Structure formats: structure tokens, C-alpha cells
């Protein structure tokens, strides 16, 4: 049983599956000897012209370099160095068009030759040097596979496994290319010298040089060179049949040794190393002459070059220069192919440089290399699988590639495709099969990358979740421990009323926060104060200054001296606030105390309750005495003296009753919602308005007025009560007719029917407008409201109508409108106030019957009060809402 | 200066679908000539009708599918389908037979499945089987070989018979089938089958006039002519040897086994091989690349199946000539055959050294 080695020695050749025999078209150049290309203007040395990591530049822009100097060192194990092909200056390191199928630019060192060919120091080695030294020299010389793949040679030659066969690939199976052919014809001695070096590095059992049988001259030259070293080394020169792609690594191995390289493995794994003849030549040059990889042989051919041939070209020469030297004739449209027609790529930019893998440049017109015919349907003829050297099913791959069925593609071994192009060459339907496979491979790679990232992200997400869980548990543990400690501490110091104390504290804080401008002098609960201040600021910024609350009493006392009234009002206001604050302050105090001592808190709470009771009790006593207990009562009592003696005692009683009501409300302030406070306020305002307006009225009207006031007060109360629950606008709308009807009902018996009608008209008009409030902007509505009301008033007011009544009605109407507006939306007071002012003046002007200045002012003030109250109500509502939220 | 950028490979072989189909059509000429010589001009008229229908219906369906009519018609595949149907149907079949069968084959069996390359079933066989099942009488009115016929027909007779069903002298096609001895003659296969059911032995049946030499007057020469055409295709490399060899081989082996076991009830292998549509089917119909398996292993399996099924249906089935059915049944198995007959990729063999 003969071993493979025996069979190889016998000259046995095997066959690989498939293969095609395209016309070789090598006649143009296969006898043209190698000539040197003149030095180009610039050399473009791409940093990534090999398999593996891009090289890292070690020179700077502007630096002078000598020939053979290292320009870029290799980055990592699988990488290669870039050497200066000639001496000169580094003019730039930037992106430049790279010689690649993609047309993408790559980082390039641009070298401007100085034509001096200054060499660096050269240190030739010999075969006697150690293997590591030889390998290092090969590595430093930047030698990569010159057959087309550009794999770093030093890495390949560093194989430590036992090597059976060292195969030197001189097949050159692609059509057109003759660079290896000429190299073998002319420089076979150097090639053999390189083989010797590699033999030393690898110690293979056999060395085979494979040459296709269409290169008889090359075979002869190598056989001659081989005999010269026959005493040292036995090299087999094997002539192989001319089939494309016999020169492919895997196919050649199968042909020469019948072995197949297992999928996913490299030939070294089965004891075989293959190198191109040009690589072997470069190795010899680098080791024996210390000439690193500076140049290579490039075949320039095609029907568009007048001087086709094989040129020795410096790495980095622009293709442009090469074509120019070969007398390229540019056409409107042509194809410049780098490499052979089967596996080479079409060049995008003619200024791309010659790289280490460039073995051929074909400049072809449409006649030589026609555009591919249009793709047709696959007729399932199976010719493609007849020719596939990897024994694949290209037809099925094509179906699945079109379908993007990645599972089936992998099932059919897509990645074993060597992209030789034989299948596409024979396809009767002119389907660009290899392009489909390239795209499918890229898609699969992308899917794998995405999956990998997704898996990693998922992993990180799960780890993060676990970490958060852990943290949460730890926190829970810690808080539990702290709670226990606290409880223990509290159990020791208190008798268990901490909860009540805390509740009291919360209440106090809440009440304190309700105040917009509470000038609390407790000074202890600063937080509550701050909250209150913030709230105050907020309402102020929204245009509802707290001034109206102060203004109301001031406006109320419109009789007599306005100034005096204002002062009194201010005092009244302050007192009101103070009284409001009192329960809170007591609670505040109590809350402070509670912090220290729950007992004290209870005491403080009791005190507060007592005070409230007292205030309420005081409100129940005679009106004069209410002044002491409740400030709102005080305000009323204060106001009363400012009222002119003409005030009806009945009025006073009414006022007193109202004041009582207010007092009660104020007493309950600490517990109830501020809205109710506002409720309490409004009737007062209105009634006060009435009471204050009344003095100028005729005595006969007074009882009526009182009724009116009462009616208004009750109506308002109702409205305010409903405010907290329903929408402000609707409430206002709902209320207006009520008020109006109440007004009418209360007023009618003693009022002139005409007046009643007027009032009714006004009220209805206002009601309508308020209804429109919900849709349009309140400001404008309010604005629109008042003048209309005024005009309506004017129109409906007959000369016999009491101007006072008219004014009252107007004021009421305006107030209502404003309230409705305020409830719908909190708008800048200023606008409303301005608008409120104008209509009044308009009204005044329009109705000359209406008395002059003082009345005018009164009316204005009354309107302002109403507006202010409305705002305050809205404000309180807002505070309420804020409190609810906090 | 514009640089044209297209993907590799930048060279293309000279094969294209249109030239392949054209070569196949040319290879059928010997067989057609033999048919004309032995059975008259009828076959030419049928071919004309079917080819015209094929092209017209393909143009129509391509228009409906919004495809480029010129590009798709110029690949000659519709032409070939029409031709094959024209050869397959009786020479004096009514004119509408060819139209129905061919239009169904092109429109339904080919284009509605997705067009060229996407059809699962052989369109010509689908058309033929449709006709056979739908119009059994018209499809079995095979003419008697001219040498055995008592009538001689002129061109006008052919045209009139195809167009109207009557010759110019008023004879029906069925009457034309009367042989010299006045008995209606059928094809050799049909004769043998009928006689076997009638209780005659195959030897007795084959002593009839219709059986001359091996496989019947006329029919054997037609088959030899088609085989010649097929061999030419093989030489040109347009078809590969796997399918014809597998079909003929399995049919021969099966009929040999049957003949050896029971010679009185079976025709001889030679009879089976050279009678009916065997050679036409083996070289021209079964080798249709679209509907056959793709790998060589798969093709052998495909061919074996056709041969075997042909024998079975001929012997035990209800039809005298079973090639169409056998082909269609084998077409159905092609996706499975393809999946399980994948070659071993380079580097993935279990015996990698």
C-alpha cells in the first residue's frame, strides 16, 4: 500500500471537483520580459494591505526616510510592516483611495521620493543563521503572501507543526496574469534560494513546485534552477493541467496530495504549507540581500494598453502611473480590473496605489470584457455544481441567498465557497452567483455580530437586575433595623403618644402652608413658613396678589375717607391673618413641642382647641364684643364705625350676623378647607359691599338692600360651597341665575318693577357671558362682560332707574363675572382690574345721570372688591389643591 | 473617464438559456422526420398549432404578469414546450386539442407557478395529461402507420381532418384508423395491452401486423430517431447522461425482470424501450432541467423512478403509455431528492485525510 508520499514521488496527480477552462488570453504578455517602471511622483503606502491588523506608522509627516526604512510597524501577531520603497520625505499620512473592491479609503502614508535611492544600512543573512533570526528578518521586511491573499508570511513560516509538504504555487491559473510566469522564467534561482530558506524554517518531507502546463518556459527554467541545488535539497517540479482554479490553495493541495483541508482549518493543520513563487523570491531577497518587500511584478494587459507587459513596480505606485507607462488609452467607459477576470475586482479610483497583492491590472474595453448580460431566472440546469471546485450546490445557495434563508445557507456550507467565480462563469442565465454569496456572507456575519451584542446586552441587563435586587434587599434590611432601633428608643422615652404628636405636627404644618403670607413669628417651624412663603410667591406670580384680601376691607370702607379706610383695612387684614394664624400657631407651637415631648404636644393641642372655642364663643356674643375674638369680626366692627351714621341698624344687624358666621368659619379654619374660609369671606365682601354702598342710597331702599344683601350672601355661600366640588365655571354659571333670581325675588316687593327688570337683565346677560366663559378666555370674556353689561345696563336702565341701584347691580354683576373668570382660570389681576376700571368709567360717562366722582370711585372699589374676592377664592382653591398634592 | 464597476467574475461563458433550448429543439428534428415518414404530415400541423398557441399564451400571461415579453419569449422555452406537446398528441387530433393542452401547460403549469425555473411539474406533460384525461377518445385516435393504412391522405385531408374531424372525402379520424384488414389498429403498446386483457399471450399479440420486428411498425424507428437526437445532445453537453441512462436502464431492468418471470404476459425489454414515447421521454422530456433533480446523484434517482413507474403503469395501470404520468410523479419527488442528494462539500468529508 503506497503512501501519499510515495504516490507523490511517482508523479501521481489527483483531481479536484469541477473547474472550468476559460480562454487564458496570456499571449499578450507571457513573453514580455520584466521591465522596471520609472519612479512615480508620489508613493501611497496603505497601512492595511494585508490580512490582519493595520500597521502602525512610526514616522512623522515631514520626516526623511531612507530606502528600506520601516515606515509602519506591525500591530499584533497577525500583521505586517510597511517599508519605504525608496528614499524621500513623508508628505502626509491621511486617508487615500485604497486598492480594494469596496472603493473605501484607508489610512495611507504618502511618500514623495527624492530620486536619490538612499539605502538604509543593509545586513544580509545566510542560510546558516538561526531560524528565529531568519523569521525576524522576514517579518521585518514586511513580506506577505504575494499570490493575492496577503497573509503575513512570517506567521505562516512560523508553523511549529510537522510539515509534510511545502508547496510552491506557480500555477497562476487566472487568465491574463503572467507575472509569476515571468518571474519563474527570469529569476528562478532566487526563487529556489527562497525555497531553501523556507525549507530550513519548516523542514518539510517534500517540496513541490506546481506549475500549470501552459507555462513551458517557466517549467524549464525552474527545473534548471532546481537541479543546481539538487545536492542540498530535492525539489519536485510538477506540471499540472491547466484548469481554473487549480491555483487555489485548497484545490492545489487536493490535486497534488489528494488531501482536503478540513473546513475551518488551515493547511498547516494537515501538515502542508503553501507559498507563492513571488513570496519565495521576496523571502530570498530579504534574507540574503536584506532587500525588504519594496516592489513586485505586475502584469499590465488588456486591449486598452498599447504596451502590455510585466513591470517591476514599487509598492505604492499609483495605478494611474502604471497605466500611463503602459500607454493606456482612456475611453468614455472602460473597466480597470485589479487581479484576474475571474476573481479580480473593478477599480473605483484610478489613483489607488499598487499594493502587495496587486499582481495584474487589466484595462479592458467593452469588447474585451463585455458588460454582463441581464440576469434571468435560474433554469436549474445544475451546471454550476458541476464546476464548483468546493463541491457545493451553488444553485441552492443562490435560491437561499435570494430568500435570505440563513439557516439553509449555513446548512449548504456557504462559507466554504472560495468565491472563484466558476459557477457564475457557466451560468446560462447569467446570474451573478458570487455576488449573491458575498452579500449573503456579509448578512450572516452581521447577524452573528448583532446576536453576540444582544446576548451580551441581555447578560448585562440580568446582572444589573440582580444587583438592584440585592441593593433593595440590603436597604430593606437596613431600614428594618433602623425602625426597630427607633421604636426601641421611642418606647424608652415616650408613653406611646408619638403618633398623636406626629399627627398634630402634620396638621400644624398643613395649616401653616395654607397661609400665603403668614408672618409667623414662631420662627421654629421654618420649613412650614418656607412652604407658606413659596405658596405665596406662587400665587403672586400667577397674578393674584394677596393684596385683594387686604383690599377688601379697605374697599369695603368706602364711605368717608378712603385713606382712612385703607389704613383701617390694612389693620383689619393683619388682624385677620393673625387670627387665622393663631390656631395654626398654637398648633405649630404644639407641633414643635410634640417633637420634644408628646405630652407637651397634647397640651398645646388643648390650648389651641380652647382658643378656637373662645373665638367662636366671642363671635356668638354681641357684635361689639366679637371684635376681640375674631379679626374678621373686628374688621366688620371697625368698618362699622367708619360707616356713616345714616346706616340702618338693620343693616348693622345683617352685618353682625354675617360677621358671626364669619367668626364661626374662622374658628373652624384650622380644621376645614380654605375654600370654606373663602366662602366665609365672600358673603362678607358682598354684604360689606352692599352695606358700604348703601349709605349713599336713599333710606327707603335700605330694607330692600338688606334683603338683597342677604340673598346675595346666601347665594354666594351656596356657590362657594359648590366650588370645592364642581368646576368653577359651571358653578359660577349655575350660581348667577340663582343669585339673580334670588335678588329679584328678594328685591321685588319694594323695588320698582323697572329696577327689577334691569337687575334681571343684567343678571341674565352676565349669566350668558359666564356660560361663554368656559370656552373663551376668561380675561376677554370678563372684559367683554363688563362693558356689555354696562351697555346693557345703560340700555335697559331707564331714566327713572336709581343710579345707585344701577351701580350696585353693575358691581354685583361684575363681581360675579370676575369670580367666574377667576374660577375658570387664574389670570393676571391687573388685566381684569384694568378692564374692570374702564367699563366703569365708560358707564359713568355713558350715564350722565349717575352721580360723579365719589360714586364712581365707590363703584370702582366695589367692583375691585368683588374681583379680589373672586381671586382669593380661586387662590384658596389652588392652595387647597396644592395641599392635597403635598 | 468612467470606470465601470461590476462584481467578479468579469468573464462569462457562452452558454445561455436561449441557445440551449434552440439546440434541444434542433435535436428533435430526426424524430419528427421519422414521424412524418411513417405517419404522415399530421404531426407537423399539430406542432404548428401547439407552437403558435404556446407563444401566444405565453405572451398573454406575461403581459398580465407585467413582465418583459420580449426577454422572456426569446429564451425559447415556450417554443420547446409547444413542440413537445405537438409531438406527443395524435397527428389527427382536432385543432382545439392542441390549443387547450398547450395554453394550459404554459399558463397554468409554467407561468402561474412563477415562470421559468419556478414550476414544479413539466409543463408539456401537464398539458398532455390534461388532454389525456379530459379527452380520452380524441387522444387515443392514433393513426395507423402509412404502410399499413388503407387510406392515403393529402395535405388537404390532413387540414380538413384536424379542422373539422372529417377528411375531404368525409371519413372520420376513427375510420382512418382501419388497417388493411379492416380492423381498427391501435398503437403497439395499446394493442399488446388490449390483447393481454383479452387473454392472448404477448407472443400471439406480437404476431399481428402492427408488430413488425421489434416494437411495432414505425414506432421503433421513431424511437431510434429520437434516441439519435438525444445522443447528439449528450455529446454537445447540453444534457448529462444521468437521466437518460437511469430512465432507460431502470425501464430495461424492470421489463427484463417481468419478461423473464412471465414472458407471456409482458412485452420484451426491447419492446418497452423502443415503443411509445420512451426515447422521446428519456432524452427530451425527463431531462427538462427545471423539473428534474439538480445533482447527479439526484438525477440518477429521478431517472430510476421514471423508468420504474413507466413499467408499472404500462403493465398494471390503465394507460398504454405511461411516460407522462411517470414523469409527473417523479417531478413531485424532486425537492426531496434534491435535499437528500447533496454532495459532500470540500473539507467536510468524514474521511478527510
Task: Provide structural commentary.
The complex is a heterodimer of chains A (886) and B (353). Chain A has 886 residues and is α/β, with parallel strands linked by helices. Among the domains of chain A are: 179 residues, NADH-ubiquinone oxidoreductase 51kDa subunit (Rossmann fold, 3-Layer(aba) Sandwich), CATH 3.40.50.11540; 65 residues, no CATH class; 294 residues, no CATH class. Helix content of chain A is 55%, strand content 10%. In chain A, the strands form four sheets. A six-stranded mixed beta sheet of chain A has the order 1-14-13-17-15-16, with helices on both faces. A four-stranded antiparallel beta sheet of chain A has the order 2-8-7-4, with no helix packed on it. In chain A, helix 17 packs parallel to helix 23, helix 19 packs antiparallel against helix 20 and helix 20 crosses helix 21. The radius of gyration of chain A is 52 Å and the shape is elongated. The two termini of chain A are 97 Å apart. About 20% of the residues of chain A have low confidence. Chain B contains 18 helices and one strand. Chain B folds into two domains: 168 residues, no CATH class; 153 residues, no CATH class. Chain B has 353 residues and is an all-alpha fold. Chain B starts with a strand and ends in a 13-residue tail after the last helix. The interface between A and B is large, with 76 and 45 residues. Strand 15 of chain A pairs parallel with strand 1 of chain B.
Amino acid at each position: 500500500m503506497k503512501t501519499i508520499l510515495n504516490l507523490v514521488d511517482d508523479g501521481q496527480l489527483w483531481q479536484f471537483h469541477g473547474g472550468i477552462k476559460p480562454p487564458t488570453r496570456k499571449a499578450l504578455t507571457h513573453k514580455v520580459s520584466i521591465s522596471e517602471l520609472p519612479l512615480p511622483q508620489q508613493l501611497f503606502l496603505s497601512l492595511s494591505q494585508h490580512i490582519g491588523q493595520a500597521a502602525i506608522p512610526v514616522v512623522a509627516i515631514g520626516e526623511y526616510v531612507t530606502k528600506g526604512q520601516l515606515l509602519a510597524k506591525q500591530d499584533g501577531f497577525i500583521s505586517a510592516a510597511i517599508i519605504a520603497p525608496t528614499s524621500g520625505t513623508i508628505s502626509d499620512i491621511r486617508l487615500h483611495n485604497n486598492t480594494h473592491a469596496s472603493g473605501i479609503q484607508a489610512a495611507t502614508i504618502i511618500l514623495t521620493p527624492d530620486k536619490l535611492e538612499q539605502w538604509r544600512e543593509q545586513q544580509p543573512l545566510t542560510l546558516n543563521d538561526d531560524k528565529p533570526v531568519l523569521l525576524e528578518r522576514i517579518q521585518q521586511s514586511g513580506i506577505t503572501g504575494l499570490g493575492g491573499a496577503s497573509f503575513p508570511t512570517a506567521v505562516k513560516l512560523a508553523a511549529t507543526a510537522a510539515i509534510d509538504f511545502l508547496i510552491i504555487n506557480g500555477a497562476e491559473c487566472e487568465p491574463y496574469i503572467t507575472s509569476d510566469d515571468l518571474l519563474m522564467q527570469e529569476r528562478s534561482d532566487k526563487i529556489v534560494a527562497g525555497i531553501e530558506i523556507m525549507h530550513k524554517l519548516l523542514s518539510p518531507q517534500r517540496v513541490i513546485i506546481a506549475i500549470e502546463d501552459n507555462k513551458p518556459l517557466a517549467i524549464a527554467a525552474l527545473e534548471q534552477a532546481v537541479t543546481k541545488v539538487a545536492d542540498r535539497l530535492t525539489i519536485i517540479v510538477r506540471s499540472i493541467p491547466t484548469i481554473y482554479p487549480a491555483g487555489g490553495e485548497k484545490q492545489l493541495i487536493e490535486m497534488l496530495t489528494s488531501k482536503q483541508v478540513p473546513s475551518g482549518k488551515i493547511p498547516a493543520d494537515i501538515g502542508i504549507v503553501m507559498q507563492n513563487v513571488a513570496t519565495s523570491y521576496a523571502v530570498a531577497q530579504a534574507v540574503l540581500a536584506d532587500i525588504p518587500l519594496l516592489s513586485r511584478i505586475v502584469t499590465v494587459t488588456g486591449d486598452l494598453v498599447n504596451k502590455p507587459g510585466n513591470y517591476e513596480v514599487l509598492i505604492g505606485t499609483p495605478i494611474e502611473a502604471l497605466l500611463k507607462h503602459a500607454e493606456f488609452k482612456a475611453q468614455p467607459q472602460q473597466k480597470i480590473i485589479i487581479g484576474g477576470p475571474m476573481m479580480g475586482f473593478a477599480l473605483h479610483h484610478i489613483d489607488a496605489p499598487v499594493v502587495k497583492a496587486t499582481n495584474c491590472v487589466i484595462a479592458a474595453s467593452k469588447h474585451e470584457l463585455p458588460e454582463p448580460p441581464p440576469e434571468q431566472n435560474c433554469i436549474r440546469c445544475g451546471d454550476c455544481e458541476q464546476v464548483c471546485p468546493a463541491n457545493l450546490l451553488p444553485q441552492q445557495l443562490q435560491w437561499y441567498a435570494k430568500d435570505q434563508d440563513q439557516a439553509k445557507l449555513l446548512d449548504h456550507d456557504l462559507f466554504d465557497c472560495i468565491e472563484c467565480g466558476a459557477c457564475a462563469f457557466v451560468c446560462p442565465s447569467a446570474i451573478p452567483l458570487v455576488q449573491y454569496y458575498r452579500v449573503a456572507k456579509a448578512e450572516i456575519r452581521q447577524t452573528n455580530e448583532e446576536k453576540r451584542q444582544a446576548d451580551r446586552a441581555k447578560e448585562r441587563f440580568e446582572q444589573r437586575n440582580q444587583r438592584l435586587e440585592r441593593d433593595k434587599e440590603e436597604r430593606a434590611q437596613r431600614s428594618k433595623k433602623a425602625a426597630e432601633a427607633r421604636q426601641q428608643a421611642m418606647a424608652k422615652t415616650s408613653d406611646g403618644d408619638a403618633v398623636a404628636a406626629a399627627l398634630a405636627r402634620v396638621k400644624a404644618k398643613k395649616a401653616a402652608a395654607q397661609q400665603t403670607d403668614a408672618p409667623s413669628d414662631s420662627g421654629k417651624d421654618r420649613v412650614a413658613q418656607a412652604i407658606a412663603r413659596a405658596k405665596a410667591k406662587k400665587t403672586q406670580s400667577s397674578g393674584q396678589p394677596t393684596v385683594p384680601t387686604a383690599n377688601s376691607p379697605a374697599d369695603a370702607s368706602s364711605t368717608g375717607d378712603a385713606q382712612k379706610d385703607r389704613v383701617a383695612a390694612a389693620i383689619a387684614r393683619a388682624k385677620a391673618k393673625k387670627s387665622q394664624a393663631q390656631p395654626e400657631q398654637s398648633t405649630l407651637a404644639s407641633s414643635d413641642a410634640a417633637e420634644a415631648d408628646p405630652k407637651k404636644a397634647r397640651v398645646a393641642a388643648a390650648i389651641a382647641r380652647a382658643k378656637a372655642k373662645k373665638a367662636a364663643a366671642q363671635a356668638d356674643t354681641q357684635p361689639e364684643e366679637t371684635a376681640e375674638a375674631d379679626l374678621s369680626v373686628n374688621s366688620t366692627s371697625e368698618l362699622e364705625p367708619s360707616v356713616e351714621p345714616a346706616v340702618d341698624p338693620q343693616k348693622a344687624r345683617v352685618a353682625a350676623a354675617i360677621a358671626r358666621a364669619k367668626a364661626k368659619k374662622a374658628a373652624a379654619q384650622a380644621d376645614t378647607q380654605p375654600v370654606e374660609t373663602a366662602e366665609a369671606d365672600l358673603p362678607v365682601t358682598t354684604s360689606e359691599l352692599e352695606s358700604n354702598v348703601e349709605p349713599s342710597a336713599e333710606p327707603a331702599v335700605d330694607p330692600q338692600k338688606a334683603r338683597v344683601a342677604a340673598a346675595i350672601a346666601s347665594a354666594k355661600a351656596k356657590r362657594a360651597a359648590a366650588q370645592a366640588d364642581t368646576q368653577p365655571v359651571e358653578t359660577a354659571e349655575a350660581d348667577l341665575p340663582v343669585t339673580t333670581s334670588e335678588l329679584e325675588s328678594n328685591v321685588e316687593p319694594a323695588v320698582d318693577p323697572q329696577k327689577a327688570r334691569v337687575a334681571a337683565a343684567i343678571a341674565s346677560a352676565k349669566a350668558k357671558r359666564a356660560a361663554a366663559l368656559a370656552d373663551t378666555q376668561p380675561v376677554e370674556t370678563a372684559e367683554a362682560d363688563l362693558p356689555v353689561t354696562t351697555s346693557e345696563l345703560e340700555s335697559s336702565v331707564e331714566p327713572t332707574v336709581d343710579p345707585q341701584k344701577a351701580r350696585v347691580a353693575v358691581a354685583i354683576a361684575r363681581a360675579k363675572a370676575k369670580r367666574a373668570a377667576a374660577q375658570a382660570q387664574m389670570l393676571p389681576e391687573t388685566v381684569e382690574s384694568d378692564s374692570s376700571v374702564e367699563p366703569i368709567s365708560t358707564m359713568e360717562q355713558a350715564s350722565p345721570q349717575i352721580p360723579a366722582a365719589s360714586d364712581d370711585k365707590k363703584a370702582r372699589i366695589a367692583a375691585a372688591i368683588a374681583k379680589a374676592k373672586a381671586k382669593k377664592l380661586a387662590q384658596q382653591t389652588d392652595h387647597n389643591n396644592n395641599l392635597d398634592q403635598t | 473617464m468612467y470606470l465601470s464597476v461590476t462584481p467578479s467574475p468579469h468573464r462569462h461563458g457562452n452558454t445561455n438559456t436561449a441557445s440551449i433550448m434552440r439546440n434541444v429543439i434542433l435535436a428533435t428534428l430526426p424524430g419528427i422526420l421519422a414521424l412524418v415518414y411513417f405517419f404522415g404530415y399530421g404531426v407537423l400541423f399539430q406542432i404548428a398549432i401547439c407552437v403558435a398557441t404556446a407563444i401566444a399564451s405565453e405572451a398573454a400571461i406575461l403581459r398580465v404578469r407585467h413582465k418583459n415579453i420580449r426577454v422572456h419569449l426569446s429564451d425559447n422555452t415556450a417554443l420547446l414546450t409547444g413542440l413537445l406537446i405537438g409531438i406527443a398528441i395524435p397527428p389527427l387530433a382536432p385543432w382545439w386539442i392542441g390549443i387547450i393542452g398547450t395554453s394550459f401547460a404554459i399558463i397554468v403549469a409554467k407561468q402561474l407557478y412563477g415562470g421559468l425555473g419556478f414550476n414544479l411539474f413539466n409543463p408539456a406533460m401537464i398539458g398532455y395529461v390534461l388532454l389525456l384525461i379530459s379527452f380520452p377518445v380524441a387522444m387515443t385516435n392514433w393513426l395507423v402507420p402509412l404502410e399499413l393504412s388503407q387510406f392515403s391522405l393529402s395535405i388537404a385531408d390532413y387540414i380538413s381532418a384536424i379542422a373539422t374531424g372529417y377528411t375531404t372525402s368525409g371519413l372520420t379520424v376513427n375510420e382512418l384508423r382501419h388497417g388493411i384488414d379492416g380492423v381498427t389498429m391501435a398503437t403497439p403498446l395499446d394493442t399488446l395491452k388490449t390483447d393481454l386483457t383479452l387473454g392472448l399471450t404477448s407472443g400471439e399479440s406480437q404476431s399481428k401486423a402492427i408488430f413488425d420486428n421489434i416494437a411495432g411498425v414505425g414506432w421503433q424507428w421513431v424511437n431510434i430517431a429520437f434516441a439519435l437526437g438525444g445522443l447528439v445532445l449528450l455529446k454537445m453537453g447540453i444534457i448529462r447522461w444521468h437521466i437518460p441512462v437511469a430512465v432507460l436502464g431502470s425501464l430495461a431492468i424492470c421489463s427484463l425482470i417481468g419478461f423473464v418471470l412471465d414472458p407471456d404476459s409482458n412485452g420484451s425489454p426491447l419492446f418497452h424501450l423502443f415503443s411509445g414515447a420512451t426515447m422521446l421521454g428519456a432524452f427530451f422530456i425527463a431531462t427538462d432541467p427545471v423539473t428534474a433533480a439538480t445533482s447527479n446523484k439526484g438525477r440518477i434517482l429521478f431517472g430510476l423512478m421514471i423508468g420504474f413507474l413507466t413499467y408499472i403503469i404500462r403493465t398494471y395501470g390503465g394507460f398504454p403509455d405511461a411516460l407522462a404520468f411517470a414523469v409527473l410523479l417523479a417531478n413531485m419527488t424532486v425537492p426531496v431528492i434534491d435535499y437528500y442528494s447533496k454532495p459532500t462539500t470540500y473539507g467536510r468529508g468524514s474521511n478527510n485525510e
